[in-house]
From TrEMBL:
The keyword DNA repair does not apply. The keyword Signal applies. It comes from Methylosinus sporium. The lineage of its organism: Bacteria, Pseudomonadati, Pseudomonadota, Alphaproteobacteria, Hyphomicrobiales. Keywords: Signal. This is DUF3142 domain-containing protein. Pfam families: DUF3142.
Length: 252
């Protein structure tokens, strides 16, 4: 009778050791994950709490507004993120999440005013980034929209866009390079939800044909092993990490 509890304790201890070893092996097999402290450029979306990493950031892509139809179907801008511009050390990009390209004239006027307000504060502001999920077959139309927007922005304002990894695999070189001339920087989102897309290396292999300077957007906490050849590409500028609150998924 007295031996049975001892056997159970030993069995439980063996099980816990085996479980710990299995979890450790799984973590090792999963590969390294994106840690914000290892990077210096971040997307800061509305609702994401301040982080220590932001104090040392060199570049912050600041969620500044949502542009899309309201409940009556009129395209409007809704301000997001930091409401009052202030002094900053990091170089800022003002990011606008876009759900419609059918803009009335006041949208660009609002963007210009916001840009001027931030540039009136101490600290550099690079320009504006447009976050729009253009389908691959619509890239030529998107490029035309961006050329028109470029003409409406100050010459000193850089224009950037986010890009889907599907562009790399499905778009022709002509479609992608149609963005050149109006776009100063393209940031590809390497993730869906909170995870890096499957077969990411196959997508990245196609980016060598790009003539546009580009970065890769990473999801904080996602698996990521940087390809060695990437750093050798002349148009590759580095990474941008999408910060998120602990335990939260990425939603755009």
């Amino acid at each position: 009778m007295g031996a049975r509890p001892a056997i159970l304790l030993v069995t439980k201890a063996v099980f816990l050791l085996a479980l710990g070893a299995l979890l450790a092996a799984s973590a090792a097999a999963a590969g390294p994950r994106v840690q914000a402290a290892d990077y210096d450029a971040f997307w800061l979306w509305a609702g994401v709490r301040g982080r220590a990493e932001l104090a040392a950031a060199k570049t912050i892509y600041l969620h500044s507004g949502e542009i899309g139809p309201d409940h009556n179907g009129f395209v409007r801008m809704k301000a997001q993120g930091v409401t009052e511009p202030g002094p900053h050390k990091a170089t800022l990009w003002l990011v606008y999440r876009v759900r419609s390209l059918d803009w009335p004239p006041q949208i660009v006027a609002q963007i210009r005013r916001r840009l001027e307000a931030w540039r009136a504060q101490p600290g550099p502001v690079a320009g504006v980034q447009i976050d729009f999920d253009a389908v691959t077959r619509g890239l030529q139309n998107y490029a035309a929209f961006l050329r028109a927007l470029r003409r409406e922005l100050p010459e000193s304002c850089a224009l950037g866009v986010t890009g889907l990894m599907d562009w790399a695999s499905q778009a022709s070189p002509e479609d992608l390079n149609a963005l050149a001339g109006s776009v100063d920087e393209l940031v590809f989102q390497t993730y869906r939800g909170a995870q890096t897309v499957e077969n990411i290396d196959a997508y990245l292999a196609r980016l060598g044909r790009l003539r546009i300077p580009y970065r890769l957007g990473l999801a904080e906490g996602a698996e990521w092993s940087p390809p060695r050849a990437l750093a050798q590409r002349p148009n590759f500028l580095g990474y941008v990490v999408f910060l998120r609150n602990r335990g939260a998924s990425i939603a755009q």
